[in-house]
Amino acid sequence: MSEIEREVHAVAARAKDAAADLAPLSRAVKDAALLAVADTLVKRAEEITAANAEDVERAKADGTTPAMIDRLTLTPQRVEAIADAVREIVELPDPVGESVRGGVLPNGLDLRQIRVPLGVIGIIYEGRPNVTVDAAALCLKSGNAVLLRGSSSAYSSNSAIVAVLREALEGTGVPVDAVQLVPGRTRESATALMRARGLVDVLIPRGGKTLIQSVVRDSTVPVIETGEGLCHVYVDADADLDKAVAIATNAKAQRCSVCNAAETLLVHADVADAFLPRVLDSLAEAGVTVHGDERVRSVAAAHGSPATVVEATEEDWSTEYLSMDLAVRVVPTIDDALAHIRRYSTQHTEAIVTDSLRASRYFVSRVDSAAVMVNASTRFTDGGEFGFGAEIGISTQKLHARGPMGLTEMTSTKYVVTGDGHLK
Amino acid sequence: MSEIEREVHAVAARAKDAAADLAPLSRAVKDAALLAVADTLVKRAEEITAANAEDVERAKADGTTPAMIDRLTLTPQRVEAIADAVREIVELPDPVGESVRGGVLPNGLDLRQIRVPLGVIGIIYEGRPNVTVDAAALCLKSGNAVLLRGSSSAYSSNSAIVAVLREALEGTGVPVDAVQLVPGRTRESATALMRARGLVDVLIPRGGKTLIQSVVRDSTVPVIETGEGLCHVYVDADADLDKAVAIATNAKAQRCSVCNAAETLLVHADVADAFLPRVLDSLAEAGVTVHGDERVRSVAAAHGSPATVVEATEEDWSTEYLSMDLAVRVVPTIDDALAHIRRYSTQHTEAIVTDSLRASRYFVSRVDSAAVMVNASTRFTDGGEFGFGAEIGISTQKLHARGPMGLTEMTSTKYVVTGDGHLK
Lengths: 424, 424
Known about the structure:
alpha/beta, Aldehyde Dehydrogenase, Chain A, domain 1, Aldehyde Dehydrogenase, Chain A, domain 2, homodimer, 44% helix, seven-stranded parallel sheet, four-stranded parallel sheet
């Protein structure tokens, strides 16, 4: 075992001890600690922004794009907003202790399945330092210890933030080691975290496809995959075309850089001639480039569409653009739409636009994705929209949690069985 | 990719297709198919026992123990019993389609979270050929396609059984490829199954510790760990000692070879002198060898116990005996009992015997295991006992499912969101 591995495992072992002390704490203790965290963040904003300035300096020197610099930058106002997000988490119900099912067995044993924390959650993430606070607050509220492994570009910011968080926890009853930064900035320290099976209960990677795939590949700790979204909108033969135009445009263009934005539009052949000219106009107005199949391109040409329509290649069907690009294909039947989705979808969110109850039931029962929308934009797949409050990510896997992961999805359960000397 | 890898992946790809067709089937179709399976098993019992005889012959030639030969052997009566177990699964409710939560969101969107099958489940198992039928029936009932990878010692039996199962499915509406045997008997074919990520949704190993650990280590497909059980019984200072003697003896000796049998007995120092002589007598009568700490051995000597009491070493605290052996230790406080459990438990089942509500609440809130028993034998951790019907295994991990895994635990969920042209 290398030095950094030993260090990471020592940190994880402390997290495991902290998790044991954290699990039985009441909501009142956890909420008071979170309020202390929020207050301390605001009080120590200057220290945090000073550390952040180091990261920003380094990023500028490295030639980072202005957009990325902006994402990295913390201001006193942004620290206030981060603290406010913690206060919102305080308001959410505590899932720990919730009785999931229960009853009295025929032999008189009393059986209850109750929610318990997962234990130690590792978060490997890119990007903005606000994730550091957000993830820590969600983990604490759900009774979990957290190991934070942010990107090296935000190392100074994250170190300062975690120091503040730990200081805020002192004397609250929540163990200070419930929040720890994973030491080291190298790939090796991330790998050591992925191999800390038995110490870390689950790893949640938050970031781009490359990050997530590398964690899935290298981790021996169980991983929850999040975020990859190649979402489809299918416009059925029985669609209300006004709604279909609006939903397709909204799903793509309302915010194109997020995982629940649509990447491919599938159009039933029966409505292609009526629908395509209208949606092409709407997409053109929104500034979307269309990657169309032959039928789409010929309709666009015949219509004299103002839209930019380029030829769709095989690659387009499997690309999560995250940009103002949309692949558009005409399909002969709903089954062809379903086959296309089965082949190319990342199983995040698919939508159907239809007025046919039969088509809607058929689509819903056959699409195997975290969320299926009927006559609604794919953009609604979101913990906030679903009423779960803040989310730690959107799971695109089937085990444990699927779709937006709120506090409930950050728990496990245990069975409590009470008898009076029961023997088998 | 080697030839066998290609073959295994081709089988898994067919399973994935079958899973897509299986998912939307109604309970009526699945139940009718399971009844056909049960009937066909009985009709074709001769063929199955003939194939089984080949395995038994080979096992005898290999010098397999009589106990193992007995576990492997199928008789017409045993085939009848296997068919009856399938008929019992028919009676269980179908979890697919169950609404887990739902409601109308403030914006009028209708949100429902519904149960859906996991997809393709791989079962890697040792031992008795009845698992082949059992696992297949549970997977089909919960709408999942199954890939079966039994031990090479039962290859002929399993091949014959799977051929019968597939024949029984013909014309029922359930795709025949929903049940497949993984080709090959070598380690390489098992490894190919473990690497079929994207085709197989979850692997459930059923068998000994070595099998389970190797699957956990080598699989890139998500794994649900099952079965390892180093279970503790803690006799509190406030225990009813009659009940404590009975529970400790039952937990160890009622059936010692199973995962929910107790391996370690922890005794509060305050009751050690009163309790130990009695439990030693009871254990001696049941034929249990005690591995005791110093205090236990000195009480046994002073009492002139008829029990065989040997010295407990560090290794005893971490050994899942699965035999008529029990480690016994005296602890000064309940916190020492909890610390011992935290250090050595496999987080399967722990029991406390106490009449103190305070001690019971303290123990229950601090033990982090799949099941916590209060005044009941550890042997009750079982899908049948819990009222879940047949179980596919007992999960000792925290993600996805924890404790006995019935049909409900063999499902995922998806969100169905219905609107009327809703835009974000």
